[in-house]
Write a structure and sequence with these properties.
The protein is mainly beta. It has 6 helices and 16 strands. A 16-stranded antiparallel beta barrel has the order 1-2-3-4-5-6-7-8-9-10-11-12-13-14-15-16. A hairpin with a 6-residue loop joins strand 1 and strand 2. The longest helix is centred in the N-terminal third of the chain and has 13 residues.
């Protein structure tokens, strides 16, 4: 065994040699340069010599013998990354898991989701639709602080002559990390509003950057451009900024938010009944203020969430809105048999709906008021189904909507 290797193994264990008894090997005299280090390794159970009581220091070790020594040192908590890398094949043959090597091998993680959805609507705007959406996520860790995430999406739309059928897009690409205590995110990321009833204002792509700081009391600010969630190159607005200040602890949440966007509904028609998400309110600069609270009951199994919204867009009687949601339990993808039910009251004027998580958000146009109920159930691990029902009356000459939405999601 080489001198440098013996010393490296001894130092890796991080225990002083003087803590141990005399060297147990007959061929290692007290004056030998490696006496203390070998005594330390023997006392720690890393080396045990040969049956005749000798250490055999001048004998060359086979790679398998060396792998066994490294494995024992690792079991004692030694920091032997370099040795583990050198003897990785032999360690693998011995069934030793090298955490550092596995971490490097898993530097890029790939996950995915397949969702089949069907919705049927009773309205003058549209009938029924079904599609299969596939998303593949890639996340690579650049270092301890920074990572890159990208997402590819394919939509198989089963309606004939639909432009989205068989389309595959690179939908997300961003970096995130920390600078001191500030979390930073930049690129094309998914932006979900800060409402306590999350997603009913906006849940889609955002091109820009975001800074956040804090934990129980958290401040988040961001800016960039609001993007449509599906169609490349189109948008529901131009430059946008947002800010949120929230307090969150177990069972209680409260926040105030501001959102500002230029030319909301950019590129749409001024006809209030067709062709536009925002009808007669297209191409307007909009300021939106929200405030919300939420309460968890019975270990957070029951949650009540209330949001107040005020938009600068709309008539004098339709600038204010409110969302009230009651959630009971919740389906967990990792736990078969779990389920959740929920009900919501939705009163949202124009300007409070940018790109909602609701399946028919592009038909909401000028705001609406009504109710929604839903249930979710985990059929098997990572297989979750859902049924949602919406009954909404349109504001300002829009289209009333009654929709049944169903989906089945498989994650991997």
């Amino acid at each position: 065994m080489k001198k440098s290797l013996v010393l490296a193994m001894a130092m890796a264990l991080g225990v002083t040699a003087s803590a141990y008894a005399a060297n147990p090997f007959s061929d290692v005299p007290a004056g030998h340069w490696a006496y203390d280090s070998i005594a330390k390794l023997a006392a720690a159970g890393v080396v045990d010599g040969y049956p005749d009581g000798t250490f055999g220091g001048d004998r060359l070790l086979t790679r398998y013998e060396m792998a066994q020594v490294v494995a024992r040192a690792m079991a004692k908590g030694a920091n032997v990354d370099r040795l583990a890398a050198e003897f990785a094949d032999e360690l693998d043959a011995l069934g030793v898991r090298v955490a550092r090597l596995e971490k490097n091998a898993d530097n890029v993680k790939i996950t995915g989701q397949i969702r089949y959805s069907y919705d049927a609507s009773h309205s003058d705007a549209y009938g029924s639709a079904s599609n299969l959406r596939t998303r593949i996520w890639f996340r690579g860790q650049a270092n301890d602080n920074w990572a890159y995430t990208g997402m590819v999406q394919n939509i198989q739309n089963f309606a004939h002559n639909n432009v989205e059928e068989n389309r595959t897009d690179w939908q997300r690409a961003w970096v995130d990390g920390r600078v001191g205590g500030v979390k930073v995110m930049a690129g094309r990321y998914n932006f979900t509003d800060f409402l306590q009833n999350r997603g009913y204002m906006h849940d889609a792509r955002f091109d820009g950057g975001e800074l956040s700081y804090g934990k129980n009391i958290k401040l988040t600010v961001g800016g960039g451009k609001v993007s449509d969630s599906v169609t490349e190159g189109s948008s529901i607005g131009d430059d946008a900024i947002y800010a949120d200040l929230r307090y969150q602890t177990k069972g209680i949440g409260a926040n105030v938010s501001y959102y500002g966007v230029k030319d909301l509904g950019k590129g749409g028609s001024n006809d209030a009944t067709k062709g536009s998400r925002f009808g007669k309110f297209v191409d307007h600069d909009v300021d939106l203020f929200t405030a919300g609270v939420s309460f968890g009951i019975a270990k957070d199994d029951v949650k009540l969430a209330v949001d107040y919204l005020h938009s600068s867009l709309g008539s004098q009687t339709t600038k204010d809105g409110v969302l009230i949601g009651l959630n009971v339990l919740g389906a967990k993808a990792s736990k078969p048999g779990t389920f959740g039910v929920w009900a919501k009251y939705l009163n949202q004027p124009a300007g409070t709906i940018w790109n909602s998580t609701m399946p028919f958000s592009s038909y909401s146009r000028t705001g609406y008021e009504g109710g929604a109920v839903g249930a979710d159930y985990t059929f098997a691990k990572n297989l979750v189904g859902a049924v949602h029902y919406y009954n909404l009356d349109a504001k300002n000459g829009g289209v009333d909507t009654e929709t049944l939405w169903t989906q089945l999601i498989l994650t991997f």
